[in-house]
Amino acid sequence: MRKPVRLDFAPPSLRRTLLRAPLAARVSAIGALALCAVALVQVFDYREAREEVDAQLAALQARAATPVAAPSAPRTPVSEQEALAVNAAIAQLNLPWRALHDAVRAATPQSVALLALEPDAKRRVLRITAEAKNSDDMLAYVSLLEREEWFASVTLVRHEVVEQDPNRPLRFQLDAGWEAP
């Protein structure tokens, strides 16, 4: 079979070149144009964002250059009662809670159930409420806490048998005073 011969006497032009180009070349050209359009939009967005950032930076620099006026009204003195309240709150916030908790947890056997830990930062005392099955477990727990290096003194404050519980556990409270760090 012979290949057909194309005779084209038209002068060369862009339209003629596009019509004779293979389909893959046309699709590639359209894709390249689309990518260029997307890149152009991105460049415009970048310029716009950059101008906005530059304007904000200039405003911040202008604000930083202006001196801040000192407050004209004199400060009112803090009363002694307010100062004591603030100092008590600060002492409570600066409580070595993690170290106290770790010391109590290290000394607590499985036979004792901790119910509450109530720190008093002013007196440096930790009130511990716990339950044990019997008085031997309770006294062993007190001696374990006394051996902890964090606690200077451990005092059994009160104890009682919980009659409402069928197991009749012994509920007790301890005051554990800690040393100043």
UniProtKB/TrEMBL annotation:
Designated name of the protein: PilN domain-containing protein
